[in-house]
């Protein structure tokens, strides 16, 4: 049974009166929390870590609680300050300067967080890569960004085509020996000084590059600046409702934007203890972590909630979940069934939040002290204006479907697409940032997600570009042409389905299809490999040669095929 609405929670929340705050709030108010008022300069890593390490009441508070199979470690704010200062010195010693791109291809680990903060302290731009990426995915990102240094492990190094990357000057190995070619993280850290003069930067100086997929072309480098901290801090207060006594867990990997904005910045800017879990998903492990670490605020994704749901209520009942007080979700549509399940499993509402890699921080959200309408993403955070617009950027009336758009100029907004100003400009129409999502707004101001307007696939909350998968597929000797779509799936949201046309001389067989699937998996990543494949005699294309994914999708779903006038003979 789904509910139409769940009443506002009563309690002591950071944002008690949304309507009032929406009317009166100004981002200038939030700026006052940061150092630049005195110096005119700032640094995210200072505000997130050093500031607390300098505070006698906070310095010994756990900042990072790391838990993985075989490794448990806790670092206080002063530990993290020391480790990141040391690593910043290592970077300086190896000539890393402000504005350089330093990439990280590492599993979630204490070293990752120390290195990430160290990069920011030098004024360099951090580029975290998801651990599951394979060679092509790694190459595309390092090449496009012109990364000068990479921090990785000996195992992951095998997927880095170093010789093909002329800009890449240095590789730091975590857990590897130093040599003429490689810098050892451990050896350098042993000797590094604990005193580092942080690089004070301007608000608009670069901080972070996150690569993400669109429907055409290679992944795009979404460029974020230190200014984003204002919004990370403020949404940490209002949306995550963080209090200094909270134990917070964000399940996202820092290779994705949720894992940095809300797995690093928001909790630490708010001085909160941040739990990081390594290892794979297991319902039992997840619940145990909540119980053991006494997690109070938990930010996860619909796919994860659906997996927990299918693990059954008995698994949840084995664990003490009473520490939880606030649960949130992001990345894909949060089904009303999941919200209903959350009420039963934890006796708590799951708060949906909407935003994107490009937006840098949460924009449309359900707040604790607000009525929730299950299925709705909620309302715009104070300080931003959201609307539904047509293709020319004209606002549409309530209940009409259109482009979900945000009035440009919020603090965490991307400032560029790396090396691609044309792509960057294409997001903006008539003063609006146009998201590519379709949605409508009801009479009471709630936003309702409807789908993507382009062919971008969202599988288990991970964004996959069909073009990348198609390009990889046709690299296989058996594949002549390929078209890739997202197919609705009850657990993963969407799965990747590939239609392929085989080259002459190849016969369809289970083994061949599996070989092709593995080829994509080994080249790109597991989440980009098609879960379903179908062999066709031809792949529908427009006369200009574009794959008609929409037509493939209609076939797959048994829907009317619509306008096919541009279809090639
Ligand atoms: O389609 C929307 C979907 O995820 C896209 C953004 O993906 P990404 O840049 O990888 O960022 C994900 C986490 C910030 C959006 O364009 N999406 C994100 N949140 C929601 C969502 N779809 C429905 N409901 C959401 N709450």
SSE arrangement:
Blueprint: H1 18-24, H2 27-31, H3 36-39, H4 44-53, E1 62-68, E2 71-76, H5 77-93, E3 101-105, H6 110-121, E4 125-129, H7 135-145, E5 149-152, H8 154-157, E6 170-173, E7 182-184, H9 185-191, E8 206-212, E9 220-225, H10 229-238, E10 247-250, H11 257-269, E11 273-277, H12 283-293, E12 297-300, H13 302-311, H14 313-317, E13 326-329, H15 336-346, E14 350-354, E15 364-365, E16 379-380, E17 386-389, E18 402-407, E19 416-417, H16 421-425, E20 428-429, E21 432-441, E22 447-452, E23 457-459, E24 462-464, H17 466-475, E25 479-489, E26 493-502, H18 510-523, E27 532-535, H19 549-557
Bound molecules: adenosine-5'-monophosphate-propyl ester.
Residues 212, 257-258, 330-334, 352-357, 377, 435-437, 449, 452, 458, 463 line the site of adenosine-5'-monophosphate-propyl ester (PRX).
């Amino acid at each position: 049974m789904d509910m139409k609405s769940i009443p506002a929670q009563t309690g002591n929340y950071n944002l008690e009166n949304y309507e009032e705050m929406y009317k009166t709030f100004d981002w200038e108010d939030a700026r006052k929390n940061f150092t630049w008022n005195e110096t005119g300069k700032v640094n995210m890593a200072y505000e997130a870590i050093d500031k607390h390490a300098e505070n006698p009441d906070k310095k010994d508070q756990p900042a990072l609680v790391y838990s993985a199979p075989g490794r448990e470690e806790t670092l206080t704010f002063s530990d993290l300050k020391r480790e990141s200062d040391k690593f910043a010195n290592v970077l300086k010693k190896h000539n890393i300067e402000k504005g350089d791109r330093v990439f990280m291809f590492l599993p979630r680990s204490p070293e990752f967080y120390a290195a990430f903060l160290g990069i920011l302290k030098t004024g360099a731009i951090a580029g975290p890569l998801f651990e599951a990426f394979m060679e092509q995915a790694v190459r595309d990102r390092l090449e496009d960004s012109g990364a000068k240094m990479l921090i990785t492990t000996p195992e992951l190094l095998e997927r880095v085509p170093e010789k093909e990357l002329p800009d890449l000057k240095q590789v730091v190995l975590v857990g590897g020996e130093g040599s003429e070619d490689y810098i050892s993280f451990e050896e350098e850290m042993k000797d590094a000084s604990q005193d580092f003069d942080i690089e004070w930067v301007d608000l608009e100086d670069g901080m972070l590059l996150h690569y993400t997929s669109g429907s055409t072309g290679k992944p795009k480098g979404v460029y974020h600046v230190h200014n984003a901290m204002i919004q990370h801090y403020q949404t940490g207060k209002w949306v995550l409702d963080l209090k200094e006594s909270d134990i917070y867990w964000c399940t996202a990997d820092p290779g994705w934007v949720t894992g940095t904005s809300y797995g690093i910045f928001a909790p630490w800017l708010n001085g909160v203890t941040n739990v990081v879990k390594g290892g794979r998903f297991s319902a039992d492990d997840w619940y145990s972590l909540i119980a053991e670490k006494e997690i109070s605020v938990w930010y996860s994704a619909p796919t994860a909630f659906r997996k927990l749901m299918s693990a059954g209520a008995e698994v949840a009942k084995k664990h003490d979940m009473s520490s939880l007080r606030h649960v949130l979700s992001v990345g894909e549509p949060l089904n009303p069934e999941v919200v209903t399940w959350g009420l039963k499993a934890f006796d708590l509402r799951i708060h949906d939040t909407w935003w994107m890699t490009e937006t840098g921080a949460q924009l449309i959200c359900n707040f604790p002290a607000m009525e929730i309408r299950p299925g709705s993403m909620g309302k715009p955070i104070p300080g931003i204006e959201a609307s539904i617009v047509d293709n020319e950027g004209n606002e549409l009336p309530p209940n009409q479907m259109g482009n979900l758009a945000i009035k440009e100029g919020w603090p965490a907004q991307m400032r560029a697409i790396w090396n691609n100003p044309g792509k960057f400009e294409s997001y903006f129409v008539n003063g609006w940032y146009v998201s590519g999502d379709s949605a409508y707004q009801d009479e009471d101001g709630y936003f309702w997600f409807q789908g993507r307007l382009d062919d971008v696939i969202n599988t288990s909350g991970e964004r996959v570009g069909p073009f990348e998968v198609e390009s990889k597929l046709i690299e296989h000797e058996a594949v002549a042409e390929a078209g890739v779509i997202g197919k609705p799936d009850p657990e993963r949201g969407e799965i990747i389905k590939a239609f392929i046309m085989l080259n002459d001389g190849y016969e369809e067989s289970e083994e061949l299809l599996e070989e092709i699937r593995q080829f994509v998996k080994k080249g790109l990543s597991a989440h980009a490999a098609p879960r379903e494949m179908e062999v066709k005699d031809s792949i529908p294309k427009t006369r200009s040669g574009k794959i008609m994914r929409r037509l493939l999708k209609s076939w797959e779903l048994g829907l009317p095929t619509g306008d096919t006038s541009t279809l090639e003979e």
